[in-house]
Amino acid sequence: MVWPGLWPYNPPVMQFISTRGQAPQTSFSDVLLAGLAPDGGLYLPQSWPQFSKSEIAAFKGQRYQDVAFTILSKFTSGSFSDAELREAIEAAYADFDAPEIAPLVDIGNGQYLLELFHGPTLAFKDIALQILGQLFSRALAKRGGRATIVAATSGDTGSAAIAALGGLPNINVFVMHPKGRVSDVQRRQMTTTAHANVHNIALEGSFDDAQGIVKSLFSDTAFANDISLTAVNSINFARIAAQCVYYITATAALGRPATFVVPTGNFGDIFAGEAASRMGLDVARLVIATNANDIMARALNDGVYAAGNSHATLSPSMDIQVASNFERALFQAAGRDADWTAAAMNDFSRSRKLELPPGVLSDLRSRYSAFACDDAQTRAAIAAVHKETGRIIDPHTAVGVAAARKLAPLNQLRAPSPVVVLSTAHPAKFPDAVAQAIGTPPSEPKRLAGMKNLPEKLKILGNDAALIKQFISSRLAG
Ligand SMILES: *Cc1c(COP(=O)(O)O)cnc(C)c1O
């Protein structure tokens, strides 16, 4: 509502708060440039912007970029002008190879694939990181100074961050992947970059070790301030904001609420679905699909969030035990009780285990279901979709399809809703897994051609935060 007497009307400036309640409220650009809140918590908007059913229905048929502008402008107001945001969004999606950006494909039986892999590195991470890169360089130019990005990657964040931030002025990007735990294509996408501001580390450890090292770099405040450390992992709220958009465009296109099945690792992508629903989107259900790294399935089904050992699977981008973004869902499920969230996360970091209180658990279960599947079920899902539709899906999408098939009978019992599986990567990123399932690898898209002949640049380092710090300091000095 706009009061006629108040022209020119300034939209309200969105403020952000930390899930742990000990950080000052701040603006979108500070959230973007900081990543993690200074109290160790994750940022969320102080209140969720709201869209009415009719506003959402009216998104049907609009350009993806225009819907993205309408949604993101609610978060960025006060930090970026409308013109800056529009320019950033257009630039972010200029290099996508599908005009719809996130096409929805009917695969029969009320099931759909929401294809999120049409960006430069062929995984859904591009959808958010391309915007983040555009906004980041604009925000940094206004603030001045340099930024050092350290990203832990289970495979796809690294290449998407490099594609978004490689070559930008005043930014250095350090990307740490677990050595030998990413696919060859994923590794080459990171290590063959020509940009001098990109530094690849192969860590002798798991993804969780890499994520733990990033957290410990942040907790060394002197070091973090000295290098202007920032994070572009899905703990950065700008990524969640950008990922809400496709839940909304998919629902608008279907014209009715959907059940979304989301291949899940760090819980960022599926939390964007919760965010969209808190903004007014009608969502039938959010289904967490995990591989053998099933911490989220156990948390929902058994009520205990407990880290286990990390397993190498056919879907390496989900080989994650500690799902960082779950903290956001816990904070919301606890009625935004920051003291409880801070205590719970401290308990978890000490004992690697958190018993979910009944109120929190029932709130989570009212929104989420969870299914885990193993590599054999992943291969079977790739083979089944290929046989039924002729389409080749990647192993992460296949984990989603396998979960959707476990859900199908339940969905029939409840009011049936369309089931949308988020298709998070192009199959050509995982040719070995695909070949195991259907006998032949997928054909290679243009974007990957030629990569095999380029030299790789990476540094192998031990699983030790002090070694990583030394390496970062010496690269920044050199
Ligand atoms: C990152 C990734 C996921 C998991 O997404 P989260 O936001 O970490 O839960 C799933 N599939 C692919 C292909 C990915 O790259």
Structural commentary:
The protein is α/β, with parallel strands linked by helices and 478 residues long. It has a domain at 104-121 and 237-443: Rossmann fold, CATH 3.40.50.1100. Helices cover 45% and strands 15% of the residues. It contains 19 helices and 15 strands. The chain has helices at residues 28-34, 53-57, 64-76, 82-93, 125-143, 156-165, 184-191, 207-219, 221-227, 237-254, 268-278, 295-302, 326-333, 338-351, 358-365, 375-389, 395-413, 431-438, 465-477; strands at 16-18, 43-45, 104-108, 111-115, 147-152, 171-178, 198-204, 229-230, 258-263, 283-290, 304-306, 353-355, 368-372, 419-423, 459-462. The strands form 4 sheets. The protein has a 6-stranded mixed beta sheet with strand order 3-4-14-9-10-13, with helices on both faces. Strands 8-5-6-7-15 form a 5-stranded parallel beta sheet, sandwiched between helices. Helix 5 packs across helix 6 (156-165) and helix 5 packs across helix 10. The protein is globular, with a radius of gyration of 21 Å. The relative contact order is 0.14. The model has no long low-confidence stretch (mean pLDDT 94). The structure holds pyridoxal-5'-phosphate (PLP). Pyridoxal-5'-phosphate is lined by residues 123, 125, 156, 234, 263-269, 317-318, 396, 424-425. Pyridoxal-5'-phosphate binds next to helix 11.
From the helix content, strand content and strand pairing, which structural class follows?
alpha/beta
Share in helix = 40-55%
The proportion of residues in beta strands is: 15-25%
Mean pLDDT: 94
Question: Tell me, what's the shape?
Answer: globular
Largest sheet: 6 strands, mixed
Which CATH-level-2 architecture of the domain at 104-121 and 237-443? 3-Layer(aba) Sandwich
Low-confidence stretches: none
From the alpha carbons, calculate the radius of gyration and give it in angstroms: 21 Å
Strand order of the largest sheet: 3-4-14-9-10-13
CATH topology of the domain at 104-121 and 237-443: Rossmann fold
Q: What are the bound molecules?
A: pyridoxal-5'-phosphate
How far apart are the termini? Answer: 55 Å
Counting DSSP H or I runs of 4 or more residues, the number of helices is 19
Top-tier CATH class of the domain at 104-121 and 237-443: Alpha Beta
